[in-house]
């Protein structure tokens, strides 16, 4: 069963969600601001943060950042009535499982929470926007959180997150074949690398990860990720 931290100044919503989760056997803490959430996280280790975006004193994006400094494996879901606000980009860069609109679709949120994984962050380097979006969605469906880079310079701009795995296209803009992989391995040495490529002959000689040839079986890729994630639990 999961341990969830719900942060929202709409107390009625937060307590209703907590009741649903506790009826399913989970443990839930409800607070109404970022400072109270930081205090709660000092006393207990949570699996998932569910936070409102606009709150007095500290935004949801800032809260995700501060809690991840303390607990990098914490999964996070942001809810907001303002999906176009600029600060959401900060939350996405830190890696969030989902951004949900207000009023919150509670059944969808509960389903996400039951799948969310601690230490489930994946770095995805892919310049094909359609494929990147598709992979992000299927990862989310399995409870994994993705942060996305679409070029070699984008890899350099990734936040100092803590991925357990990286899915890297061997050929992306901004550098020679394999440069994005080199930078990912340099920045995230503890992440298991998966190269996703139509050009396996271009793999560097010292590559010790897994090679997935395009076109690939998404189910098999997810199964391999789940195996790696389970092996680190």
Write a concise keyword list for the protein shown above.
10 strands, Sig_transdc_resp-reg_receiver, Rossmann fold, CheY-like_superfamily, five-stranded parallel β-sheet, 9 helices, phosphoprotein, alpha/beta, 233 residues
In short:
By secondary structure, this protein is an alpha/beta fold. It contains nine helices and ten strands.
What would you note in describing this structure?
The chain folds into two domains: 3-115, Response regulator (Rossmann fold), CATH 3.40.50.2300; 121-232, 3-Layer(aba) Sandwich (Rossmann fold). Helices cover 40% and strands 21% of the residues. It has helices at 11-23, 34-43, 60-70, 88-94, 106-115, 129-141, 152-156, 179-187, 218-232; strands at 3-7, 27-31, 48-52, 75-80, 98-101, 121-125, 145-149, 165-169, 192-197, 210-213. The strands form two sheets. It has a five-stranded parallel beta sheet, sandwiched between helices. Strand 6 (121-125), helix 6 and strand 7 (145-149) form a beta-alpha-beta unit. Helix 2 runs parallel beside helix 3 (60-70) and helix 3 runs parallel beside helix 4 (88-94). The two termini are 15 Å apart. Keywords: Phosphoprotein. The modification 4-aspartylphosphate is found at residues 52, 169.
